[in-house]
Design brief:
single chain; about 130 residues; alpha+beta; two-stranded antiparallel sheet; 2 helices; globular
Length: about 130
């Protein structure tokens, strides 16, 4: 896995709470993992295979119209969200997510899949407030 992506995080989302205490994020970093042969891959089954193994703890959001898991890697202590959308797995960086956890997740995904992955990073930077 020497040519694995770096999963560099150039900006971090910022947590915000409104007056009712609801959480939202300003800014985002998302890594989109697209299988090169999407017809041959069951993304949900593949994701659930990875999440069933140590070091992952996870919970899903039942009331959303798409698959979304909050994932904790007990080995790296990283927490991030994973969703499935438009034929790809999406790794959503949270404010304290580090590169190590994302790289480790990708490595495990790559180990259990028979496909190659195209990886794209999308960054929506947090606007300066100063």
């Amino acid at each position: 896995m020497t040519d694995a992506p770096s999963f560099t995080i150039p900006a971090r989302p910022r947590r915000q709470y409104d007056r009712a205490g609801r959480l939202s994020y300003e800014g985002s970093v998302l890594f989109r993992l697209e299988p090169t042969d999407p017809e041959e891959v069951d993304l949900r089954a593949l994701l659930e295979t990875v999440l069933r193994t140590w070091p992952y703890r996870h919970g899903d959001f039942h009331d959303l119209p798409m698959v979304v898991y909050l994932v904790r890697d007990d080995e790296t202590s990283d927490v991030f969200r994973v969703s499935i959308r438009d034929g790809a797995l999406q790794l959503h960086v949270l404010p304290a997510t580090e590169t190590a956890g994302l790289k480790q997740f990708y490595g495990r995904l790559d180990d259990v899949s028979d496909t190659e992955w195209d990886i794209y990073r999308r960054v929506e930077a947090v606007p300066d407030t100063e």
